[in-house]
């Protein structure tokens, strides 16, 4: 997981999997990042190979928390399997989901 700053957003780049085994680390890092850098985040999933319902739930909770605090969450989702998961879960319509730049 990498963290950087871009255009007023804190960028978290996830690699590997976001599932039951890794969600605690993600939520802890996201919470710390929000406290330190503020409530505007971009979570980049272009290097993510797998996400399950636990990972989707963590992103949905982060989204709600940031919006309630006056912030925003943008999620960059690569085309393919992970994009379809966001579509079928309904999160693609509920959150700011974007494709990676070409």
Number of helices: 4
Shape: globular
What's the Cα radius of gyration? 12 Å
- By DSSP, the count of extended strands is 5
The main pleated sheet reads as:
5 strands, mixed
Q: Unreliable runs, pLDDT <50, ≥5 residues?
A: none
Strand content: 25-35%
The proportion of residues forming helix, as a percent range, comes to 40-55%
Helices and strands, in N-to-C order? EEHEHEHHE
Distance between the termini: 22 Å
- Mean pLDDT level: 93
Return the structural class. alpha/beta
- Strand order, biggest sheet? 1-2-3-4-5
Describe, in plain words, how this protein is organized in 3D.
The protein has helices at 23-37, 53-68, 81-89, 91-94, and strands spanning 2-6, 9-18, 40-51, 72-76, 96-98. By secondary structure, the protein is α/β, with parallel strands linked by helices. Helix 2 (53-68) links the parallel strand 3 and strand 4 (72-76). Helix 1 packs parallel to helix 2. The mean pLDDT is 93.
Write the layout of secondary structure elements.
Elements lengths: L1 E5 L2 E10 L4 H15 L2 E12 L1 H16 L3 E5 L4 H9 L1 H4 L1 E3 L4
Helix pairs in contact: 1-2
Give the structure's gist in a few sentences.
The chain has 102 residues and is α/β, with parallel strands linked by helices.
Features:
5 strands, five-stranded mixed β-sheet, 34% strand, alpha/beta, globular, 102 residues
């Amino acid at each position: 997981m990498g963290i950087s700053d871009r255009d007023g957003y804190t960028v978290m780049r996830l690699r590997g999997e976001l599932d039951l085994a890794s969600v605690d680390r993600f939520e802890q890092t996201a919470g710390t990042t929000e406290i330190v850098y503020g409530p505007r985040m971009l979570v980049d999933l272009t290097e993510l190979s797998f996400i399950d319902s636990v990972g989707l739930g963590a992103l949905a909770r982060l989204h709600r928390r940031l919006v309630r605090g006056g912030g925003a969450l943008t999620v960059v989702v690569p085309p393919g399997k992970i994009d379809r998961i966001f579509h079928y879960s309904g999160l693609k319509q509920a959150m700011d989901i974007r494709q990676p730049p070409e």
